[in-house]
Design a protein that fits this description.
Elements: H1 4-12, H2 20-32, H3 39-52, E1 56-60, H4 66-75, E2 80-85, H5 88-100, E3 107-111, H6 119-124, E4 127-132, H7 139-147, E5 150-159, H8 176-193, E6 198-203, E7 209-214, H9 217-223
Helix pairs in contact: 3-4
Protein name: tRNA 5-hydroxyuridine methyltransferase
Family: Belongs to the class I-like SAM-binding methyltransferase superfamily. Cation-dependent O-methyltransferase family.
Subunit structure: Homodimer.
């Protein structure tokens, strides 16, 4: 049986960063465990942006700006990316990375808690695509909050939905705090699958990714 982590590493080996700054960010993240998207997940997200032509994008969880930068490179110079982060140190580092690549006209950082209503985010809606990549325990809460800011037939992408494969063996996770978190992620996955207003597919890319597409209003009416 092939190990899931080994397969992910194999896929990651075929992806490449667009520039030296991104390579440096990847190296730093690996060295001091900064949470950024895995290369294969990021590559798929970039392709999704190109396929759908998404231009108005919301990211929940900026970290050092890695994902927002790569989304901006895929979306183009006429895109508008709003990214939300509450850690001030992360914000400062992300801003430096974004300015180094001259993408400050595309990416706007909002300082705040992604689980709360943020007026700057509301004012920028509706969004073509929303990336949920912040606190895993709050995934469902964030989905509820930001669904209303998504355009019809827009897409919500959630990263880390397999949580290192632990969702396949929740009872086998013995550490109490970790077990609670894994249960939350597993419950979120079941929640996504039950949303009648969305079509969701779960992908075995990176650490697991869910792509949820809002159905057109006509489709809603037909189901009822």
């Amino acid at each position: 049986m092939i190990d899931f982590k080994e397969l992910s590493a194999y896929a990651d080996a075929f992806t490449c960063s667009e520039n030296e700054r991104l390579k440096q960010m990847e190296q730093k993240a690996a060295a001091i465990y900064i949470p950024i998207m895995q290369p294969s997940s990021m590559a798929f997200l970039q392709q999704l942006i190109r396929w759908t032509g998404a231009r108005r994008i919301l990211e929940l969880g900026t970290a050092i700006g890695y994902s927002s930068i790569r989304m901006a490179l895929a979306a183009g110079s006429d895109a508008s990316i709003i990214t939300v982060e509450r850690d001030q140190a992360m914000i400062e580092e992300a801003r430096q990375n974004i300015e180094t690549l001259n993408l400050q006209h595309v990416i706007h950082i909002v300082c705040g808690d992604a689980t709360e209503e943020l007026q700057e985010v509301v004012a920028a809606a509706p969004f073509d695509l929303i990336l949920i990549d912040a606190a895993k325990a709050q995934y469902e809460r964030m989905f509820h909050r930001y669904t209303q800011l998504l355009r019809e037939e827009g897409i919500i992408v959630t990263d880390n939905v397999f949580f290192h494969g632990l969702v396949c063996d929740v009872d086998g996770v013995k550490k109490r705090q970790l077990n609670r978190l894994v249960k939350k992620v597993d419950a979120y996955n079941h929640f996504l699958a039950q949303q009648s207003d969305f079509d969701t597919v779960f992908l075995t890319v990176g650490d697991g990714m869910a792509v949820s597409t809002m159905k057109a209003h006509g489709a809603h009416r037909e189901e009822r």
